[in-house]
Inverse folding.
């Protein structure tokens, strides 16, 4: 009896071994942690959907979204090998890659997988704060963005260049949203969901009337001159929200990067799955509906792309700019 049972077990093992050899199937899925942002942000919802796309379309990968403090926090986590891929803004990711600005003495090397949207940095204030122009923020209690985030770093640098000094109030998105509602802070800077207001800004506006403050032409020129890794975004009337007038603000692109230890084939499969999904990401983040992620990535990336992304983009017939190929 033992001999027959042993024979059956051995047969099963041989069959499974043949399946692995013939199909390349791995029975232990590779776990990938995806760094995101605050759960109150529309971008968090986007990355949850992107994670689901990866799990559905990339065999052998088990991806999990992790709530974080956004780009700057994700870069710290990359440096500690705590995440495998994560949300980045193209300006801060490039600064970290090349060891510039805050990363001068501690570069963080990641490579872009894809870019999915350009994000205006909306200066959101309570309407009753009587802030009509950016200089009115001087001395006012104001939040520059999630503590440690790219928005915070960029906002503080931009307003410093414009000679504007609010009383900075740090905090998480959830804390600041509550503080704005309670009139303990007059406003904050928050990345838009494309041209539309972020979910947290819409939350505030439900019961607290808000204004969006614009760069004037002189300020826009200063931003363009001093921050080549940023773009000045013209947001049309009603684009941010119904009833909102047109305005100018600074912005950057938002995408996903991978650590240098991610192999080319895994990155290729992930990028392919993301770029070829036409429904799931758009259902979670309407701005990406119909977007060409490859075109956005090649247009707005400021540092080298991951070889896996390059492989897929070339396969689709795109030419990769020299500046986006690691030397």
């Amino acid at each position: 009896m033992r001999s027959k049972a042993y024979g059956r077990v051995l047969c099963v093992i041989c069959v499974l071994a043949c399946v692995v050899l013939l199909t390349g199937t791995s029975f232990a899925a590779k776990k990938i942690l995806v760094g995101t942002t605050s759960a109150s942000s529309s971008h968090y919802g986007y990355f949850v959907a992107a994670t689901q796309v990866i799990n559905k379309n990339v065999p052998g990968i088990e991806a999990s979204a992790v709530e974080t403090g956004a780009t700057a926090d994700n870069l710290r986590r990359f440096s500690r090998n705590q995440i495998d891929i994560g949300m980045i803004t193209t300006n801060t990711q490039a600064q970290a890659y090349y060891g510039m600005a805050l990363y001068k003495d501690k570069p963080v090397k990641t490579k872009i997988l894809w870019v999915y949207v350009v994000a205006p940095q909306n200066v959101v204030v309570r309407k009753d704060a009587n802030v009509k122009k950016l200089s009115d923020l001087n001395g006012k209690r104001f939040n520059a963005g999630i503590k440690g985030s790219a928005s915070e770093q960029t906002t503080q640098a931009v307003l410093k260049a414009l000679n504007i000094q609010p009383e900075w109030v740090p905090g998480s998105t959830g804390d600041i949203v509550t503080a704005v509602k309670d009139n303990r802070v007059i406003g904050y800077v928050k990345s838009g969901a494309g041209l539309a207001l972020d979910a947290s800004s819409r939350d505030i506006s439900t019961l607290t009337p808000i204004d969006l403050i614009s760069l004037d032409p002189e300020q826009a020129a200063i931003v363009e001159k001093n921050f080549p890794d940023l773009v000045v975004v013209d947001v049309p009337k009603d684009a941010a929200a119904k009833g909102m007038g047109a305005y100018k603000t600074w912005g950057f692109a938002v995408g996903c990067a991978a650590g240098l230890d991610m192999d080319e084939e895994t990155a290729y499969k992930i990028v392919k799955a993301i770029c070829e999904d036409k429904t799931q990401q758009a259902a979670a983040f309407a701005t990406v509906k119909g977007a060409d992620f490859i075109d956005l990535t090649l247009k707005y990336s400021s540092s080298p792309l991951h070889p896996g992304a390059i492989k897929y983009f070339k396969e689709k017939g795109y030419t990769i700019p020299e500046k986006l190929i690691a030397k």
